[in-house]
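S1.2 Input.
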Amino acid sequence: MTIPAAPTAPTPTPDSLTGERLEAAASIPADVIAIGAILLTISTAAVVPFWFGADPILLPVVILTVAWTPALTCFIADRITRSRAAPEAVAGFRSQAGLTTGRPWTGSLAALAVLLSVAAVSTGIGALAGWQPLNIGADALAVLTLLPLAAVLMLVQVTGEEIAWRGYLHTRLTGLGTGTAAGVIAVFWVIWHAPLMLTYLHLGEMSERAVIVTLMNLGLASLTLTALRVLSSSVIPAIIAHTVLNTVFVYIASNLVVAQTSWSGTAFWLTAATGWACWAIAALGLAIAQQRRAHRQPVGQRSF
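S1.3 Output.
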């Protein structure tokens, strides 16, 4: 007797893959698209005055003022779409944003380990290869003693962003799949920062190549932060990671290595590529860890 061959799934064609991507994009919730548009408008409007002569010394104040608008915008959107009473709305939003779920403390330790490893490895490779020579500043130790205070202040600032990006909006996008949600958030995050980066370029505080690399770094870092959020089922680790990104990484660039402006083109791009590789490996490693953990759990207990 001849046993009929088991049916096999058709091989995806380029057209079908494109169609699937378009279908995924089209399924992004309308309120998420609206929130993204509102936040882009806010981030653009905040820096427009600096293109027309506003004193650049005020820019840090503007950045601090705008920092919590993502969380506020998401909360208002949640109130509008769900029409809940105030106490219930706050509790529901905190859960949606990942503030009261998962394993925040073990996830935060993982965030510290991952971010500090990315910083150490990328800096170490650049220094050993000669692309990014070490140049420890005279006041590096004094600045280091102030880093904990800077981290606390930065923690307050970035929490307003993370409640939105890796918190509420990530939850709203989980129906698309973890990978797609992470990609959408990364795009949103890059676009959110683009007006500020272009303003730094306009003011002469950043070069064109620095803007390009920074936006690329943000996109890849976003994938790592989202992976931490998914692995822990909490937004707290993403908040910790974002804080490290804005303090430790800035400290290294400002106090421990030669300024980027003096690097050759080759050294600059090799250093950038090293950083991108480190971010990609970190995100991939966390994603693999999440998949392995998910496969060990009963379906009802999976956190993503």
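S1.4 Remarks. The chain has one domain: 30-293.
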